[in-house]
Design brief:
The complex is a heterodimer of chains A (223) and B (130). Chain A has nine helices and eight strands. Chain A has 223 residues and is an alpha/beta fold. Chain B is α+β, with helices and mostly antiparallel strands. A three-stranded mixed sheet of chain B has the order 2-1-6, with helices on one face. A three-stranded antiparallel sheet of chain B has the order 4-3-5, with no helix packed on it. In chain B, helix 1 crosses helix 2. Classes of the chains: A alpha/beta (223), B alpha+beta (130). The structure holds guanosine-5'-triphosphate, magnesium ion and zinc ion (ZN) (2 copies).
């Protein structure tokens, strides 16, 4: 029986990419800055978001938070914003664009300035799934050690910002900030690094300024 | 875990693209994968075996072409390939440390842009008609 080579030339995650492109179009049209936050479990995503929502008010900001199970994070965030929705992914270890699209149902995006998407705590596969975000933020906690960025290159190489969290713990850890910077820049030479502590609030101003500047840049036609 | 999602997407795509060739069997699948796609080859092969069972691609061989990372200098446009873990079976990409050059080798300007290396593509399928 003859074997035939059929050319297919298709990106494997095209379905997700199509859904993400549609989301990106909607976010753009509504003038929302959508931020995809990714980190290992417990690096401090929800805590940073709690502080962010509290500080960014009265600007309207929404959060979509993904976890394998529980509504715990959504419950924490609802104290700070009426627009908080949890996606429980079951066994899926990352968020996909279709999950985000489904959970946005019924929200008037035109009313929002920011949409934060807290991805499932995982430094591996969220890197491959575009959610239609304008910017990707990867968080590392000082407790994870200086070399994590170079151990997870795919997620770091596409990041628009790297946030170093729990910096209030620096005095106890002997964490080498320069070593961390070198690790990040070995994978993504141009990415800015922002150290902060959601506990003390140090660095929060710079984080908010970065968000505002990225939102302002949305209005300008992108190159 | 991630590889299982990919394997399922792969089987779905094959079913979709070969829908009009009823009864056809896929004997081999050609993929192109970059080092920045974060795919562990052995995990993908194992997941594909499971995902393809009972489908048109049951037992199909995965032929994986590994690409390199390509960076381009933002100042002078010079492009450079950085070889990833290669096509050897050692894979376990995450354990390999990839160091991108912080400066351009030809003009010395900093921060080259990554323009290739995250490919995750279905290239072709070898198909036998019923
Ligand atoms: N010392 C200190 N602890 C922090 C800081 N931020 C978060 N934590 C603690 O770290 C733990 C995890 O924080 P979360 O904000 O829940 O982390 P997360 O990344 O949202 O976790 P998952 O959603 O489960 O992946 C909690 O016990 C927080 O109180 C910080 O800036 N300093
Ligand atoms: Mg959380
Ligand atoms: Zn996953
Ligand atoms: Zn150059």
């Amino acid at each position: 029986m003859p074997e035939e080579l059929v050319r297919l030339e298709q990106r494997l995650l095209r379905r997700n990419e199509d859904a993400a492109a549609e989301l990106r179009r909607r976010f753009r049209a509504a003038g929302i800055l959508t931020v995809n936050l990714m980190s290992s479990p417990g690096a401090g995503k929800t805590t940073v978001l709690e502080r962010t929502l509290a500080s960014i008010a009265p600007e309207p900001a929404a959060v979509v938070v993904g976890d394998l199970a529980t509504e715990n994070d959504a419950r924490r965030l609802r104290r700070h914003s009426p627009w908080v929705r949890q996606v429980t992914t079951g066994t899926v270890c990352h968020l996909e664009a279709a999950m985000v699209a489904a959970v946005l149902e019924g929200w008037d995006l035109e009313r929002l300035h920011y949409l934060f998407i807290e991805n499932v705590g995982n430094l591996v596969c969220p890197a491959s799934f575009d959610l239609g975000e304008a910017v990707r933020v990867v968080l590392f906690a000082v407790t994870e050690g200086e070399d994590k960025p170079e151990k997870y290159p795919p997620i770091v190489h596409r990041a628009d910002l790297v946030v170093l969290t729990k910096c209030d713990l620096l005095p106890y850890l002997g964490f080498d900030l320069e070593r961390f910077r070198a690790s990040v820049h070995s994978v993504n030479p141009a990415v800015p690094i922002l150290p902060l502590s959601a506990r003390t609030g140090d660095g929060l101003g710079a984080w908010l300024a970065w968000l505002r500047s990225r939102r302002a840049a949305l209005a300008v036609p992108s190159s | 875990m991630h590889e299982l999602s990919l394997a399922l997407a792969l089987v779905e795509t094959l079913e979709e693209r070969l829908r009009d060739r009823s009864g056809a069997r896929v004997t081999a699948v050609h993929l192109r994968i970059g080092p920045l796609a974060g795919v562990v080859e052995s995990a993908l092969r194992a997941a594909f075996e499971v995902a393809a069972a009972g489908t048109l691609a049951d037992g199909a061989h995965l032929a994986i072409e590994r690409t390199s990372i390509v960076v381009r200098c933002r100042a002078c446009g010079q492009e450079r390939r950085i070889d990833g873990p290669g096509a050897d079976e050692s894979d376990g990409f995450v354990a390999h440390l990839i160091h991108l050059p912080p400066t351009c080798a030809s003009c010395g300007s900093s921060a080259p842009a990554v323009i290739g290396g995250d490919e995750l593509e279905l290239v072709a399928a070898e198909v036998v008609d019923a």
